[in-house]
Structure to design on (288 residues):
């Protein structure tokens, strides 16, 4: 998902936004022959993610800049840990600094939050999964960060799987087509490799959906007791996905109901960027 082409496209756009006509400050104040050596240092503990993205910011500004990653994505770190080193022309390093930090702080924040959710359900069989509640244009980055934190990805886009939500079912109901029939007709038209998930918000909707033979049923905004009942009702005939207002305080109880997947929008829409800093040392180039 996080390909080199995707990284370069998104990071290039961010650099163009941040310095559309160059870095006036660095070009005015910093000698052209100055060299920077910098360390990416953690001000707080967490889980690392976005190393390749961080490095790309410096490479795309100036290929002469070298970035050495000291941790792999998914590694945990404590405050004060050096996560990467950067060496290159000082102007270039200063130009790329903010964009590189923005991405690695954001991605490490998502990875760290995801890891906290994963730890809460580690004693169960439930997976923690993300949703499509991602920052526009940054989905591949944010989804990668979820995996760095030990989570799993839901469908990446609307093109990847069928997921009938409440509004889809409302349209079907208004058209007079029974839900089971509509789902069976859809399944007949789909390739056998396409997964189908249906969201329900009441226990009495489950049987009609089950009768269609779908792969996953999402129990949306169910109480803990109704989640237990839903799991019993589905009885292994479909994957059970729980969603709706999941928090760190509630995710353990949700997992203990026996659901297979817990979809958590907060992993990406509510994660706080970690406090990571770039400590820079400038010097003039050695005389030839």
């Amino acid at each position: 998902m996080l390909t080199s082409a995707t990284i370069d496209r998104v990071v290039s756009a961010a650099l163009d936004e941040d310095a559309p006509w160059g870095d006036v400050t660095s070009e005015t104040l910093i000698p052209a022959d100055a060299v920077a050596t910098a360390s990416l240092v953690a001000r707080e503990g967490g889980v690392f993610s976005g190393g390749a993205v961080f490095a790309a910011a410096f490479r795309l500004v100036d290929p002469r800049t070298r970035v050495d990653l000291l941790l792999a994505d998914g590694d945990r770190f404590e405050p004060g840990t050096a996560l990467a080193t950067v060496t290159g022309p000082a102007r270039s390093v200063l130009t790329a600094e903010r964009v590189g930090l923005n991405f690695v702080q954001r991605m490490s924040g998502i990875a760290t939050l995801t890891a906290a959710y994963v730890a809460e359900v580690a004693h169960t069989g439930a997976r923690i999964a993300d949703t499509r509640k991602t920052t526009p244009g940054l989905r591949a980055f944010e989804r990668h960060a979820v995996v760095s934190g030990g989570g799993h990805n839901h469908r990446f886009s609307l093109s990847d799987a069928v997921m009938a939500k409440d509004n889809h079912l409302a349209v079907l109901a208004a058209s007079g087509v029974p839900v089971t029939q509509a789902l069976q007709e859809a399944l007949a038209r789909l390739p056998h490799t396409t997964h189908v998930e249906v969201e329900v918000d009441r226990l009495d909707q489950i049987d009609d959906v089950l009768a269609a033979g779908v792969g996953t049923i999402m129990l949306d905004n169910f109480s803990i007791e109704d989640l237990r009942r839903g799991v019993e009702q589905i009885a292994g005939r479909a994957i059970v996905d729980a969603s709706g207002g999941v928090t760190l305080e509630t995710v353990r109880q949700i997992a203990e109901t026996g659901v297979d997947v817990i979809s958590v929008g907060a992993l990406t829409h509510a994660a706080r960027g970690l406090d990571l800093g770039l400590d820079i040392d400038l010097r003039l180039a050695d005389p030839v």
